[in-house]
Amino acid sequence: MRFARFCGMTALGLIAGTLAAQAETKLTIATVNNGDMIIMQKLSSAFEKANPDIKLDWVVLEENVLRQRVTTDIATKGGSFDVMTIGAYEAPIWGKQGWLVPLDDFGADYDYADLVPQVKDGLSVGGKMYAAPFYAESSLTFYRKDLFEKAGIKMAEKPTYAQIAEYANKLSDKKDGIYGICLRGKPGWGENMAWLGTAAVAFGGSWFDEQWKPQFTTEPWKETIKWYLDVMKKDGPPGAAANGYNENRALFATGKCGMWIDATVTAGYLYNPKESQVADKVAFAPAPITDANPKASGWFWSWALGVPASSKNAEAAKKFVQWATSKDYVKLVGESEGWIAAPPGTRMSTYSNPEYKKVAPFADFVLNAIETTNPAKPTVKPVPYTGVQFAAIPEFQGIGTTAGQDVAAALAGSSTGDQALAKAQASAERTMKQAGYPK
Amino acid sequence: MKTKPRDKALMTLLGWGVAFIVFFPVLWMALASVKTELDAVATPPKILFRPTLENYAEINQRADYLKFFTNSIVESVGATLVCLLLAAPAAYAMAFFPTRKTKDILMWMLSTKMMPAVGVLVPIYILAIQTHLLDTWAGMIIVYTLMNLPIVVWMLYSFFREVPKEILEAARMDGATPRQQLLELLLPLSLPGIMSTALLSIIICWNEAFWSINLTASKAAPLTAFIASFSSPEGLFWAKLSAASLLAIAPILVFGWLTQKQLVRGLTFGAVK
Amino acid sequence: MTTSTIPSPKAAGFSFRRAQSRATDTRPLLWPSIFVLLIWMIVPLVLTLYYSLRNYNLVDPTVTGWAGIDNYTYLLTDPSFLTSVMNTVVLVGGVLISTVVFGTLFAVLFDQEFWGQGAARLFVIAPFFVMPTVAALVWKNLLMHPVNGLFAYITSSLGLGVIDWFTTMPLFSVGIIVAWQWVPFATLILLTAMQSLDREQMEAARMDGAKAVARFRHIIVPHLARPITVVVMIETIFLLGIFAEIYVTTSGGPGDASTNLPFLIYKTAILNSDVGGGSAGGIVAVVLANIVAFFLVRTVARNLD
């Protein structure tokens, strides 16, 4: 009986909900819980005030969980979300699938020309933008000025991988708990393979060749993995095979690492004394290169907001996306949260803003790092895909993660680098064959 | 049996030592929840520090704890009630009127529990869309019911089997219908068992973290989703996560402690008397 | 298809009550609820079986059609498959043994009279109520982390060096976390079973000069046989599906050193978006679980009656 009453109440609740929904549009927004998105959630009351007929409902999740959640929903046309936070990997794949609403009619106010071209292109298919960039990043080399001085060395203007290895060796002081270099080791396509994929490009390699054949057993990959294993075993922290972005950030912020090659977006945190014990000692240099690819850049990534085609409130959703990725929003963040918290990497106007430049000594450097990436032509040899640290095909996620596990095994010492690559190659070939490549 | 004071002191030391070690991770988490993020990852670990409530303040600002809490309560209690309603008659039938198929059915039910959730996500998701049960209380209650039904049936079955057959026999002689036997005799007799089954079911639902995150968005998301929003991929998050975790497990911890006696009876299929 | 692999409880030592002849007329009243139950259990199974025979990639709509047994052959020929089955068995077995051993010892300990016994018991039970994800995160980051973790600090200040838990012994480390969650469960049940122990018998044995170890072996252990069986049965069901702890700590690695069957299926179904393959994995897991259940029931279930 109690259950029947409970059902009745639920039904009443649903009806009440439907009635209310006619008066106002309710948008469900799925987003990751990183700092910039949390600020967006906080500031969104300004949007609700300006649009009293729209109410926002937030679903905030951890990155991997969010990715799985929105992928399932959009692929099955579930319609649970009106706005989704997606990455530079998903946007072109889903856009091509017709799963996202094109976002190319935001009008003159939006100023498309102000968007950093690499960022906009990375989110477009056939010239149509399918997700609006919220923030973008490349990678660079963070290092500790004080430790470099102590070791009597100087960071090169454009360091090579060989130089980085040398520095790492000199910086290491394991007795004092200082490790020359911290790099990602945790398996995952967005973790260790994002780092290794970028390095492999700098060593002249790629994920696939033009016939879609996986390239793990080619020379550049072998050199990459050899460099990585040598350096990490000699000068890396213990437990490196379980360290992802997060763990490394905690290590660097607590003063355990001499160098760290990772996302540009971290600069804002490392310079923030509330988040980092090394705020006054950190400096940066470009992502390393090699002779095989002297033009190599860091990786390229962006977080963006997209509107799924299955959304029943696409118009209102677009309104929100436009607001959250506009120039005005950047200004709003700058004024209410401090300019150092302004979402980086997406708009030229942010980088020409003197107030931002004043608090962010790394501003030009970061913009330059992003502008030198070329996700459309990422590698020395021509390839059939886009993306630096990833290849924008649905199969990549699985291939990258499996390869990541093999590499982590090598880092943990349970296999050699070449064995790991051979294993990664075999499983990548299996996956590609199953998916019917070359298409 | 009287214990010598010396032995008792020794046992006290040993007992509390073990309790401390086992409880330590929870304690350490509770400590981390009142540290600043930098203190939480500091080495050497800080035992003495200035406690702060800023993590709790930030959590309160970022998420509506009460909403997640309500959803957790409604869904776990709701599913448990449905489970009991469905399972009680079935367990009754199997315990008192078995057929040749009964034993197969029982084992088969248990075996369906062994299907890994990750393997069936998409079929279930599509089903939920088509039945409009995505992100609703009803949907979550159905899924949890499905999930716990085998265990609940098993437990009730074994409780019912403990009820002395003679009592039912006597009732039958007095002309009680099977329905009366079930409702007026069996249920009151096995009430402790039913209570403890319910408690276990609630705890399992409360801690379930796969379906609850994947089949809800905002309306029906329980505390596990609340946790997932603080397990951050960026930056220092351990203090905040500890605080959020403590908030999420606190109700069930208190609940579990209050009811541990009943719980034991349920958990052992009545094997422990 | 699953019924064929199900062990007969009778052979395993169950005994069921005979149906009362006068009761047969009640069955039509009771079968509807069983019927609902069956439907609710069959639907996901049938759906999974269907998808396991289809080509279905979640993010690539061009992949369609019947796959026959391709999904199964793909899964079974995966080099990680055997490893993951072995890892599953080791993990389940290891955790079962350690929880039963520690559970029994703790149960005996907390059965003794001492000051603050009630409160101490509560503290020991607490880990069972902690969500698996939370447990894993706390252990990984606050305790076992080789640089920032408490264990590293303790061992290195004792001059023992640092143990790199998740790299050098991933499966063991995951096992520790899981065991931490389930030892309280075993303790709780066995502790309650201790309450019904015949105290006079214990006392008499003591008077007769039986040593504590002998009393433990000949009185306590036999008394606990049945509740231990219950612990083993319930735990096995949950341990076969361990996922969150691995996902949070090692992501199945390094290599596939800590990949169990659920995690392998996760990689197939979610990371590769291969719904067909994932479904096949689900079916294979159910079949394997039934095989485990068969042996389990044969070896331990006779204690149940």
Automatic annotation (TrEMBL), chain B:
Q: Does the keyword Membrane apply?
A: yes
Question: Which terms are listed as keywords in the entry?
Answer: Cell membrane, Membrane, Transmembrane, Transmembrane helix, Transport
**InterPro entries, sorted:** BP-dep_ABC_trans_perm (IPR050901), MetI-like (IPR000515), MetI-like_sf (IPR035906)
Q: Does the keyword Glycosyltransferase apply?
A: no
GO cellular component, as recorded: plasma membrane
Membrane-spanning residues where? 12-31, 77-98, 105-129, 141-160, 181-204, 237-258
Q: What is this protein called?
A: Carbohydrate ABC transporter permease
Automatic annotation (TrEMBL), chain C:
Q: Please give, as recorded in its UniProt entry, the membrane topology of this protein.
A: Multi-pass membrane protein
What are the GO cellular component annotations?
plasma membrane
Q: Which family does it belong to?
A: Belongs to the binding-protein-dependent transport system permease family.
**Whose protein is this, by species?**
Lichenifustis flavocetrariae
Q: Which domain of life is it from?
A: Bacteria
Please report the name of this protein according to its UniProt entry.
Answer: Sugar ABC transporter permease
Q: Which UniProt keywords apply?
A: Cell membrane, Membrane, Transmembrane, Transmembrane helix, Transport
State its location(s): Cell membrane
Query: Which residue intervals define the domain ABC transmembrane type-1 in the entry?
Result: 85-296
Pfam families with a match to the protein in the record: BPD_transp_1 (PF00528)
A single Gene Ontology biological process assigned to it is: transmembrane transport
The regions listed as transmembrane in this protein's record are 29-51, 89-110, 122-139, 171-193, 224-248, 280-301
Q: PROSITE patterns attached here?
A: ABC_TM1
Q: Which Gene3D superfamilies match?
A: MetI-like
